[in-house]
Amino acid sequence: MIIFEHVCKFILSDVNLHIPQGISLGLIGPSGSGKTTFLKLTCGLLEPAAGSVYTMRLIPEKNRRKLGSMTGAFFADTPFFREEDTVESNFRDLKIIYRMQDNIFDKEYYALAERLGFRSFEKESVKQLSLGQRRRAELGALLLSRPKLILLDEPTEGLDQTARDSLRELLMERKMEGTTLVISSHNMEEISAICERIALLDHGSLRYYGEKELLLRHFAPDEVMEISFSGKMPDLEDLPLRHYSLHQNKLKLTYNSNYVTSAELLRHILAQTTITAVTTQKSGLSEAVSRIERGEKHELY
Amino acid sequence: MKNDTIYLAGVYTRTIMKSWFQYKVDAVLRSLAVFLREATGIIVIYFTLLKFESLNGWDIHELLFLFSLLFLTYGILIIFFTGLRDFGRTVRNGGFDRFILRPRGLLFQLIFSNADWFAAIGHGSLGIVLFVISAGNAGITWSPGTIIYYTAALIGGVMIQGAIFLLLASLNIYLLETNSLKELFYWNMRKFAGYPVSIFHKAIQFCMIYIVPFAFVNYFPAQYLLRKEDMAYPSIYMYLTPVVGVVMYLAAYGFWRYSIRYYNSSGN
């Protein structure tokens, strides 16, 4: 679906990757690492200074119009609507721009308006909307024509939790239908929930590209288990723990989940004492990312 | 794929007119403001010129006829070329990226997705007022032939100025800022064009005929209708306005198509 071969542009240097169709990719990295540049190269808003980009087998900057009919791209700094017009009339323009039939448009529009919650202000002009309202309508407009490829640059900035949840649901549905998603975000939870693959950019180079699970297993294998017990302090001698701490009757164990599972730990401890409560916590994507960014070397690649 | 481009142009025009004329009083006042601003300039020139019998043989009504052509063509021009007039701003605020991301022609979107109707009404109605005042008094005889000629000259004049706007917009892709160029080559030349070309120094005449050919917008068409004695150029020039318009527009369009391939959005 998207191919980058030795691509250089602005900060990006020698980026190579291949994103197959139907993949949902999370594009992460610190500010200024080239995420927006990556997305703009993909849809033809920028031309690579060296190397080549192919999107749906096309050279993006030479096929902007053709790509435009199949791609939905959202950039936070690109105004999406005519400010003076109402939300609804902006959508009606899009209906004609994307050559949608009346019944299909009605179905899509009302579904999106309900789910993203912009039905209540569809008669207001865009310039009167708050940032959150505007975002909701913009994201609806992006999904309206059911593009095969969706590119989102920081889509959740300014959205409240309800809107975030609706967007996540919508994107998951589109993914099930075979849409390719590329989402850049600083919100790791968001990325983690939607994306199966991760591309990590750091100062313009690709530090990691691959499955999210693999990334987590290698860079964030730690789990934390908190156990409240009544009875005697269990013997932890033989367990492969990173470290543990004890506060009254609360035991906090940190361990590498590649070496020992929570079930094994529990079995071991249950044999020695009575447990009253257990919680476990996996470390997430943000932990993995910060470890890579700190420059932790790993034989993964 | 059905061709619905004209339909889309119609829808755009309707939406845009609706938003420009949403507040009736506001629309009237703002159009009136443009009219008065431009008319004041003309009134000052009018009283200045009253001191003279004529300017190289052109009396006051004939001069006002020259002005009427400038205002009428600009009134029509701005209906279609507001998007190109404001192109620099559209590029800077990211609006042009939006057009690129949509599956429609760029120039089409620029032309039809906005129109400064207040400028169109203000300039257009001043043009009509000046035309009504001057055309009768300047002694033009109207026949089917002169009416057809006049219409063709108006269209040609619009295309000449449209080509200048398109050229400046194309340059904007390389330069990012062309307001001063527009000030120099469009608005300044337009100020000269209010008077018969023959009163100026040779170098300026050359500019107004061959570089920024405003002479074809009003001077040569007026010469055809008025036949003044200061005409120092081949009489074929009086018929060339539509040709100059079409040729310039096609050339500017070619340059636009070429330049647009080099457009790059802002990074990061």
Q: What is the number of helices of chain B?
A: 12
Instruction: Provide the gyration radius of chain A in Å.
Output: 23 Å
Oligomer: heterodimer
Distance between the termini of chain A: 23 Å
- Describe the largest sheet of chain A: 6 strands, mixed
Report the structural category of chain B: mainly alpha
What does this structure look like?
The complex is a heterodimer of chains A (301) and B (268). Chain A has helices at 35-43, 64-68, 87-97, 102-116, 131-144, 161-176, 188-194, 212-219, 262-270, 285-293; strands at residues 2-9, 12-19, 24-28, 50-55, 71-75, 149-153, 180-184, 197-202, 205-211, 222-230, 241-247, 250-256, 274-282. In chain A, helix 8 packs across helix 10. Chain A is an alpha/beta fold. The two termini of chain A are 23 Å apart. Chain B is mostly helical. Chain B has helices at 5-20, 24-50, 60-85, 87-92, 95-100, 106-112, 117-137, 144-175, 179-192, 202-211, 219-226, 241-260. The A-B interface holds A 9-11, 32, 34-37, 40, 43-47, 61-62, 64-66, 68-69, 71, 73, 75, 77-80, 82, 84-85, 89, 92-93, 96-99, 125 and B 1-2, 4, 7-8, 11-12, 15, 18-20, 22, 93-95, 97-98, 100-105, 113, 261-262, 264-268.
Characteristic terms for this protein:
heterodimer; A: 301 residues; alpha/beta; 6-stranded mixed β-sheet; 4-stranded antiparallel β-sheet; 10 helices; 13 strands; B: 268 residues; mainly alpha; 72% helix; globular
Please give the structural blueprint.
The complex is a heterodimer of chains A (301) and B (268).
Chain A: E1 2-9, E2 12-19, E3 24-28, H1 35-43, E4 50-55, H2 64-68, E5 71-75, H3 87-97, H4 102-116, H5 131-144, E6 149-153, H6 161-176, E7 180-184, H7 188-194, E8 197-202, E9 205-211, H8 212-219, E10 222-230, E11 241-247, E12 250-256, H9 262-270, E13 274-282, H10 285-293
Parallel strand pairs in A: 3-7, 3-8, 5-6, 6-7
Antiparallel strand pairs in A: 1-2, 1-4, 8-9, 10-12, 10-13, 11-12
Chain B: H1 5-20, H2 24-50, H3 60-85, H4 87-92, H5 95-100, H6 106-112, H7 117-137, H8 144-175, H9 179-192, H10 202-211, H11 219-226, H12 241-260
